[in-house]
């Protein structure tokens, strides 16, 4: 049985939070998005007087493979990471194997 913990991280700067990653962790870089805003400084007189602002969003995806009995340690490690200035989402997937004897006993 294996359990995967997937963490999707979005931030405005590169998250330097991931020190001491467990050896069973894969880091997947997702494409960055950039939005450019143009604002007119003075709409009446000088149309050429403009100011531009940009917003860049960096994304990363972490996949942590673990055994079910180690889940508590991994959650504690994730809680201690202190992901400041970032949004993150946790996704879980668990594969189990059915015992044929137990399955036949139920039927």
Automatic annotation (TrEMBL):
Keyword match Isomerase: no
Taxonomic superkingdom: Eukaryota
Residues in the signal sequence: none
Annotated GO biological process: translation
Cellular component, GO annotation: mitochondrion; ribonucleoprotein complex; ribosome
InterPro entries xref list: Ribosomal_uS10 (IPR001848), Ribosomal_uS10_dom (IPR027486), Ribosomal_uS10_dom_sf (IPR036838)
GO molecular function, one term: structural constituent of ribosome
Keywords for this protein: Ribonucleoprotein, Ribosomal protein
UniProt KW Ribonucleoprotein keyword: yes
Residues covered by the Small ribosomal subunit protein uS10 domain: 6-91
PANTHER family documented for this protein: 30S RIBOSOMAL PROTEIN S10 FAMILY MEMBER (PTHR11700)
Family to which this protein belongs: Belongs to the universal ribosomal protein uS10 family.
Designated name of the protein: PREDICTED: ribosomal
Lineage of the species this protein comes from: Eukaryota, Viridiplantae, Streptophyta, Embryophyta, Tracheophyta
């Amino acid at each position: 049985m294996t359990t995967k913990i997937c963490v999707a991280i979005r931030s405005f700067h590169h998250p330097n939070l991931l020190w001491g990653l467990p050896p069973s962790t894969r880091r997947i870089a997702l494409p960055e998005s950039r939005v450019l805003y143009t604002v007119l400084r003075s709409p009446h007189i000088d149309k050429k007087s403009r100011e531009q602002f940009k917003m860049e969003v960096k994304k990363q995806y972490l996949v942590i493979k673990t055994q079910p009995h180690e889940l508590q340690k991994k959650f504690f490690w994730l809680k201690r990471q202190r992901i400041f200035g970032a949004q993150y989402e946790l996704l879980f997937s668990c594969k189990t194997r059915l015992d044929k004897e137990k399955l036949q006993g139920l039927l």
